[in-house]
Amino acid sequence: LKNELNKILEGSSLEAAPQLLGWTLARETPEGVIKLKIVETEAYHQDDPASHSFRGITKRTTPMFEAGGLIYVYFTYGAHYCINIVTGKKGTGEAVLLRAAEPLEGIEIMQQNRGSLDIYNLASGPGKLAQALGIKSTDWSGKPLGKSTVYLEPPAQKIKAKDIITSPRIGISQAKDVPWRFYIKDNNFVSKLTRRPI
DNA sequence: TTCCCGATTGTA
DNA sequence: ACAATCGGGAAC
Question: How far apart (Å, rounded) are the C-alpha atoms in residues A76 and A41?
Answer without folding.
Answer: 17
